[in-house]
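Dear support,

Our group has been running a series of protein-ligand predictions, and this particular one with S-adenosylmethionine is the one our PI (initials K.S.) wants archived with full inputs and outputs. We had some confusion internally about which version of the output was final, so please treat the block below as the authoritative record. The input we submitted was:
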Amino acid sequence: MAELKGAEKQRYVADLFSRISGRYDLMNDLMTLGMHRRWKRQAAALAAQGLKGSAIDISTGTGDLALELARRPEVDHTVGLDLLEGMVSRAKSRSAARGMSGSVTMMVGDALSLPFANGSFACATAGFSLRNMPDVGKALSEMVRVVRPGGRVVILELSPMKPGLRSSLFRPVFHGLVPLIGRLVAGDGTAYSYLPKSVDYFLEANRLAEMLSELGLANVEFRRLGFGTVAMHRGVKLGLLA
Ligand SMILES: C[S@@+](CC[C@H](N)C(=O)[O-])C[C@H]1O[C@@H](n2cnc3c(N)ncnc32)[C@H](O)[C@@H]1O
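Confirmed final output from the archive:
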């Protein structure tokens, strides 16, 4: 199923995340031993540092990265957008529980067709979601479009590993332990078999960096996190400052 494309992939992914939304946060904590929280904090800092204005987190899920952006002193308002009502309602409850509803708008929307004018945001982020998109190029170009000149795009995503010692250590964890925990904790081993496979089908970090440059971003850089399992990319949108 990880090899699906287009509308078929979107339907599959929407069904999968609808099924697991209730256990999504717990599973992330278990699968990364809580490290995803630090990575999201780092991604928000990388996106917002030194800028002023509003921020968007596309495919925000339960809103972790949107909430991290909203905590940044540089950010005056944050939009967290996700395709699924089930995810958005959880993101809204979490932002309300933290007293942050005034500074964050959690909304249903499609990352492939963002309902915002060009240059609306100082920065845009995507966390662990691009590989689930039916059209990665379109999702990236939408992020670039809604960021203003001088603004930043930051991507946090799992990365396929080249064959070697590390991959021989991590593959059994991704492909064996993760589906097992998914079955025991989320009651859905199938969903958590798809997730590691989707990494195998995703772009290697160097290729993702090339794509960001091809979309017109400058100073594209990435660094690896989580023993090389995760990459965090950053690029700056060129153009005349408004
Ligand atoms: C693995 S989760 C990542 C959630 C969150 N960003 C995080 O880091 O925890 C992937 C999310 O992408 C969302 N998604 C998939 N396709 C989408 C689309 N076309 N537009 C917006 N969200 C989408 C799913 O609903 C799901 O919540």
